[in-house]
Design goal:
InterPro entries: 4NH2But_aminotransferase_euk, Aminotrans_3, Aminotrans_3_PPA_site, PyrdxlP-dep_Trfase, PyrdxlP-dep_Trfase_major, PyrdxlP-dep_Trfase_small. By secondary structure, the protein is α/β, with parallel strands linked by helices. Helices cover 36% and strands 12% of the residues. Strand 10 and strand 11 form a beta hairpin.
Length: 510
């Protein structure tokens, strides 16, 4: 095979010789340690800074990465490490490592990279005077917001606010966003019970609150979540997380209820009645818990697609039913769009697929937004006193500026429409692979939801490892799901590379 050279960042990447590749497991040697795609048509049509395709030069991790990981482990826990990354030489849809391996990245930092590594539009934004000012003079936003903070919010975070939600509380991360939304829900409920925002706290309430006594300074209310949900790892958000025991072991939790998330059967068209019955039963359980749980819920939080818990979907009818139940019983409806938001599902916000009669009460966001917080519309969700919803930073202007640049680039290139189109293409091709290799692409799900696609594989963990050998970085969720989380600049040409690699991974098990 003739050696081809590609440029990524400032480095030239050359494939290893066939003899080096032959040292691999025989099933992998023929297709590994080489440049997989070598046609200019494989490059991005949006930008010119992508490589032509993946290049695998060594095992992953290779010798340079192993040495660096060993050094890092002396001072930092590396046991969850996926891949030591060379960010300077990562570009577009491709992630690089210190040994010169370049992989098509369809995991994207756990779904948090929106428009590619080293995107020139974001580099330009990062070099701006307003970004420098935000970085070196980081403000305590609640006390000392910058003079242009309203303009930054209106031209960025609030420009893409979900319909009906015109205010935002900015935060640091997804867990933080959910946690502050929960606080807003508790304060909203107690404010109503007192008679409105004008009613002052009693001395008894203030004294009991300082002693952690219930009541009157607080009242036992809960946030309802769903089985196999993930909403973060902070204390409040962790009490609503139900995806894996490892997240929760040894951590005290609140006595908050969990409802059953309807686990649909696939293909959907073959299990219409069963799935309808499962969703109906789940909604009935939600209403029963609202009315009867020993710690009454004041809010229900739900992911449009349960991501960490296994990529579990439900129908728009289910979510409309959930909204109706919360409205009926005066319980707030919080939609956690931390992973699903910012275009990944072919809509800017995944809950747009539901066609709700009225919007959620709060929508939390992070990941692809590169900042975090929650949107809301009801002015009563703003606490009646200052400092009740507060911390030093309350977000980060630099990250808000980055999100504004991301939004501008998404709009300029119409990337949400791109995700919807490419998702349909990718899903159709995966349906073909599922028929060709029975049992290897089980429970294929995510049709019509952009590139937010997943399937189950019986050898999932090894599947993810072998994918790297074939030039793809991919992630899992739940017990057996392979989840796809491409960036918004992922195109049909990248899908073809991914599909070819997935087929090779499956063949390597035969």
């Amino acid at each position: 095979m003739a050696s081809r050279v590609i440029r990524t960042g400032n480095s030239l990447l050359r494939p290893l010789s066939t003899s080096a590749a032959s040292r691999l497991h025989p099933a992998l040697a023929a297709q590994s340690y080489r440049h997989f795609t070598a046609t200019t048509s494989a490059m991005s049509s949006y930008y010119s800074w992508e490589p032509e395709g993946p290049t695998v030069k060594t095992e992953i991790p290779g010798p340079k990465a192993k040495a660096a990981i060993e050094e890092l482990h002396e001072v930092f826990d590396t046991r969850s490490l996926n891949m030591l990354t060379d960010y300077q030489n990562s570009s577009g849809n491709y992630i690089a490592d210190p040994d010169g391996n370049v992989l098509l990245d369809v995991y994207a930092q756990i779904a948090s990279i929106p428009i590619g590594y080293n995107n020139p539009a974001l580099i330009k934004a990062a070099r701006g005077d307003d970004m420098i000012n935000g970085l070196i003079n980081r403000p305590a936003l609640g006390n000392f917001p910058p003079k242009d903070w309203a303009e930054v919010l209106k031209t960025g975070i609030l420009k893409v606010a979900p319909k009906g939600l015109n205010q935002v509380f900015t935060a640091m991360a997804g867990s933080d966003a959910n946690e502050t939304a929960y606080k807003a829900a508790f304060m909203w409920r107690r404010q109503h019970e007192r008679g409105g925002p004008h009613v002052e706290f009693t001395q008894q309430e203030m004294d009991s609150a300082m002693k952690n006594e219930l009541p009157p300074g607080a009242k036992e209310y809960s946030i309802m979540s769903f089985k196999t949900a993930f909403h973060g790892r902070l204390f409040g958000s962790l009490s609503t997380t139900r995806s894996k025991p490892i997240h929760k072991l040894d951590i005290p939790s609140f006595d908050w209820p969990q409802a059953t998330f309807p686990l649909l059967k696939y293909p959907l068209e073959e299990h219409v009645e069963e799935n309808h019955a499962a969703e109906k039963a789940a909604l009935e359980e939600v209403e029963h818990l609202i009315l009867n749980y020993r710690v009454p819920p004041c809010a229900v939080v739900v992911e449009p697609i349960q991501s960490e818990g296994g990529d579990n979907h439900a129908s728009p009818e289910f979510f409309r039913g959930l909204r109706e139940i919360t409205r009926k019983h005066n319980v707030l409806f919080i939609v956690d769009e931390v992973q699903t938001g910012v275009g990944a599902t072919g809509k800017f916000w995944a809950h747009e697929h539901w066609n709700l009669q009225d919007p959620p009460d709060m929508v939390t966001f992070s990941k692809k937004a590169q900042t975090a917080g929650y949107y809301f519309g009801n002015p009563e969700l703003r606490p009646n006193k200052p400092y009740r919803q507060f911390n030093t930073w309350m977000g980060d202007p630099a990250r808000a500026l980055l999100f504004r640049a991301i939004v501008q680039e998404i709009e300029r290139l119409d990337l949400v429409a791109n995700t919807a189109r490419v998702g349909d293409y990718l899903y159709g091709k995966l349906e073909g692979l599922a028929k060709k290799y029975p049992g290897q692409f089980d429970n294929l799900r995510g049709k019509g939801m952009g590139t937010f696609i997943a399937f189950d594989n019986p050898n999932r963990d090894e599947f993810l490892v072998r994918a790297k050998k074939f030039g793809v970085n991919i992630g899992g969720s739940g017990v057996s799901a392979v989840r796809l989380r491409p960036m918004l600049i992922f195109e049909e040409r990248h899908a073809d590379i991914l599909l070819e690699a997935l087929e090779k991974v499956v063949k390597s098990f035969q």
